[in-house]
Design brief:
- By secondary structure, the chain is an alpha/beta fold.
- The protein has one domain: Trna Endonuclease, Chain: A, domain 1 (3-Layer(aba) Sandwich), CATH 3.40.1350.
- Helix content is 38%, strand content 26%.
- It contains three helices and six strands, in the order αβββαβαββ.
- It has a six-stranded mixed β-sheet, with helices on both faces.
- Helix 2 runs parallel beside helix 3.
- The two termini are 21 Å apart.
- It comes from Candidatus Magasanikbacteria bacterium RIFOXYD1_FULL_40_23.
Length: 134
């Protein structure tokens, strides 16, 4: 099961291989947008969520989040992405969300994919050995 920290690390490695310079990579213990990376003068902001709790003391650690919890996580990531897009900071930017590549996340992302495309928000679906950009 991939925690948020796993998603962040896997995606940061993927982005570096794609030519991005990682400027910021936060853990679940830190506040802010999880990944900030730059490439060709464009800053990429990524909000990530996992498929299980990263806290070993949590009852949810090692257990998949329910479909309702996944919906909440997608909603939180979307709100964060929209806040970043709404900031009038004059920088050239790209905004993305990253989730584990599993059935519940795919179903929710497919429901909102047309709206995500209109806003320009990219979605990364992450497995331990691969990343898919939607």
């Amino acid at each position: 099961m991939l925690t948020e920290n796993h998603i962040i690390n896997i995606l940061a490695d993927y982005l570096e291989k794609d030519g991005y310079k990682i400027i910021q990579k936060l853990t679940t213990q830190e506040k802010g947008v999880d990944i900030r990376a730059e490439k060709n003068g464009v800053t990429l902001y990524v909000e990530a969520k996992g498929e299980t709790s990263s806290k070993e003391s949590s009852n949810r650690h090692g257990k998949p989040f329910t479909k309702n919890q996944v919906g909440t996580h997608v909603s939180v990531a979307l709100l964060t992405s929209l806040k970043v897009l709404s900031k009038d900071d004059k920088n050239s930017k790209k905004v993305a969300m990253a989730f584990p590549d599993n059935k519940n996340h795919r179903e929710i992302i497919e429901l909102i994919a047309p709206a995500l495309r209109r806003t320009g928000i990219v979605t990364y679906l992450v497995k331990e050995n691969s990343v898919i950009e939607i």
